[in-house]
Amino acid sequence: MRIGVVAPSSRFSEEAANRVRALAAAEFPRVELVFHPQCFLTHNHFAGSDEARAAAFVDYANDPAFDALWFARGGYGSNRFAEEAIDALTPTAREKGYLGYSDAGFLLAGLYRAGFPSLAHGPMPQDAMREGGEAAVRRALAWLADGAEDSLEPELERGRSYAAFNLTVLTHLLGTPLEPDLSDHVLLIEDVSEHTYRTDRAMFQ
Amino acid sequence: MRIGVVAPSSRFSEEAANRVRALAAAEFPRVELVFHPQCFLTHNHFAGSDEARAAAFVDYANDPAFDALWFARGGYGSNRFAEEAIDALTPTAREKGYLGYSDAGFLLAGLYRAGFPSLAHGPMPQDAMREGGEAAVRRALAWLADGAEDSLEPELERGRSYAAFNLTVLTHLLGTPLEPDLSDHVLLIEDVSEHTYRTDRAMFQ
Fold this sequence. Notes:
homodimer; about 200 residues; alpha/beta; 5-stranded parallel sheet; two-stranded parallel ribbon; 7 helices
């Protein structure tokens, strides 16, 4: 089981990678976790230039040696190359799972629109840096490695369609080539501690 | 020349109204400025309930006694009733000018979509409360009272179409019934002191 990690948005750190590597080695010994070298590039506040981030994503997504792709963290920037990069994916890319949230929602939305079957909204390696983040990373690895039933949101019902997004990301992809058809979906929103008027404005849209 | 003021968004104050009244009386004696009583209502952080704000807007817009409608201030909330209120406007409402910016952009967008001919993005009574705001209010009154040429953005060229918006307001009305057709328009954006990534994300959309 090989999981590739790429960083399509903001800068990532070796420290976060090391925490996740340690947890994976201790608790998911059959998982091989490979952080693409791009994860540690910096270009302004991005994890490398648009070209570098796009190339790493396409590289690992199209590589049959990986069973899943995990987005390292959110922040900002995946929208800057998502459309073009998704167009560059091959059928091999459809056979793996993809996991992330926040800014990675731009890519997940575009992949969903393109019909990719195995996409999930969930924790990312960067979560290892926050209080209580170990449990989140463990849950993510359980989904990536095993599709573990208990890694899923407990309220989900089989036979229904769900989408989960950061509301700001979702509203900013409406009308763009990344917007998926969410008809008849239940929308789960990740936002917490947001001003009520901002949530109201987004829900209006 | 009668200008009606309504407050479609956040709470407005008597203090701001008095400052604008004083300036208008001193410098625009032929202008009669009428603040709708709704301007001084409060409902949470709104200037009255959705129903009260909508009713005041429709009331003054449809009243032939007013030559222009001026939005008191921005903040948040005009999107909550804009579509329904615009549907309730009569041909009389098309004969007057409308001025505002920020959150009032939801209404101006919907009015533009509905073909209203005299709409401008510019200062509001609330500007009287800020440093340098008197000049802004003066400029607004010059447009409302006289359509004064020197009240306009100096770079505008005759024969071109322009739209001006707060970027957050504009992005949040995309795909809604308020979205106007901005094909072949020059877009002016009001935003200042915004994080670059936020502007970039909005421009992406």
